[in-house]
Write a structure and sequence with these properties.
31% of the residues are buried. α7 crosses α9. The chain is an alpha/beta fold and 229 residues long. It folds into two domains: 175 residues, Nucleotidyltransferase, domain 5, CATH 3.30.420.10; 42 residues, no CATH class. It starts with a helix and ends with a helix. Helices cover 43% and strands 16% of the residues. β2 and β3 form a beta hairpin. The protein has nine helices and five strands, in the order αβααββαβαβαααα.
């Protein structure tokens, strides 16, 4: 593909694929708290007339916004000698981010495997990359250079491959990961969980379910990349 040629892509083993799962920062919105005030301001144009409506919307929509959502899992995958290796980071958010950044630095400069030159995912330009960067700053963690993208345009980020943008081209309509795997006849990652169920699963302590789901998203992204390249 022309774009991959332009950025210097040569081999799938040059790529770290990743995905994040996010949940609301709190299991419920409590009236009168600074968080509730901030959320009501964020949702002020949605037409809600009661606090109950704000509280309900918080659980479903907060994970989409970095000031109101937190990272509960990051999964990575890469291809080594034809095999997919995967790893998930769970625990408290600062530990997830620090561990992910530490391993990413090692993968970029590995002497045992091909050094990684690219970061890839699905819809990572608009969501995953800036979300990770913001949540790192919340905890005063210096973002990995691959995530330090403030002030940059998508076409300047030659180290990032966003499969959603690669596939959409100039189409006006967006497409989801599920839409693409279905169109290509690939296995769906949404068989046991979907993104809107992560908050509930997290606060029920089902972190294994979340990490499995996140890894399936990474594997689906790798499968899509193999399909189109």
């Amino acid at each position: 593909m022309r774009y991959l040629d332009e950025i210097g892509y040569r081999d799938i083993e040059q790529i770290v694929f990743f995905d994040i799962e996010t949940a609301a920062v709190e299991p419920e919105l409590i009236e009168g708290t600074p968080l509730a005030t901030s959320w009501k301001y964020k949702m002020r144009h949605e037409g809600y007339t009661s606090f109950e409506e704000y509280a309900e919307s918080f659980l479903s929509k907060a994970p989409l916004y970095a000031p109101f959502g937190k990272i509960v899992c990051i999964s990575v995958g890469y291809v080594y000698q034809g095999n997919v290796r995967k790893k998930s980071y769970v625990g408290d958010e600062p530990t997830i981010i620090k561990s992910f950044f530490a391993d990413l630095a090692k993968l970029k400069n590995s002497e045992k495997i091909m050094p990684k030159r690219f970061l890839a995912g699905f819809n990572v330009f608009a969501y995953d990359v800036p979300f990770v960067a913001f949540r790192a700053m919340v905890h005063k963690i210096k973002p990995d250079p691959w995530f330090d993208v403030a002030g940059m345009k998508q076409w300047n980020l030659k180290h990032i491959i966003d499969l959603s943008e690669l596939l959409r081209g100039t189409m006006f309509a967006s497409m989801s990961l599920l839409n693409v795997v279905t169109a290509f006849g690939l296995p769906s990652p949404k068989d046991e969980l979907s993104g809107d169920g992560v908050t509930k699963a997290f606060y029920e302590g089902k972190i294994d379910l979340i990490s499995t789901y996140c890894e399936k998203d990474v594997e689906s992204t790798i499968n899509i990349f193999k399909y189109i390249v």
